[in-house]
Amino acid sequence: GIAELGTSLRMRMPGMSFTSTVTAATSHEELQWSAKILTDRLFLGQHSFTLTRNDDGSTRAHNSEIFSGVLTKPFEGFFAKNHNAGGYAAFNSALKSRVEARAARTLSRA
What's the pTM? Predict the structure, then answer.
């Protein structure tokens, strides 16, 4: 989907896929989304990317997430697995490659 406030995004990562809702989208600054299982009290996952321009012209990407709800504890091992060599590491690596490739194409056209 398109990352605009209120839209739904279909997320696919190794070991999981889910639909989330965009909760914040500011071009070149921030993207946040959340996903729940039935209700926020049962399970709520909130994920965000914040971009900060560095003095040298590069950009720092901060990637964070917060989990809450009664199902958080039972799924703790699953989340830990995906934070290490699993889904999130692969996701971050793929994102970095895509951003750097796009930047290189943009610079080569200038």
Answer: 0.71
Residue 27 tokens read as 């071009």
For residues 59 and 53, what is the distance between their CA atoms, to the nearest angstrom? 4
- Could you write out the three-class secondary structure of the chain? CCCCCCCEEEEEECCEEEEEEEEEEECCCEEEEEEEECEEEEEEEEEEEEEEECCCCCEEEEEEEEEECCCCCCCHHHHHHHHCCCHHHHHHHHHHHHHHHHHHHHHHHC
Q: Which two tokens stand for residue 110?
A: 């200038």
- pLDDT value of residue 70: 93
Query: Would you state the pLDDT for residue 80?
Result: 66
Cα–Cα distance between 29 and 6 in angstroms, integer?
A: 17
Average pLDDT for consecutive 10-residue bins of the chain (110 residues)?
88 78 92 90 90 89 87 77 65 82 82
What's CA 108's distance to the chain center, in Å?
A: 28
Rounded-to-integer distance, Cα 32 and Cα 25, Å:
7
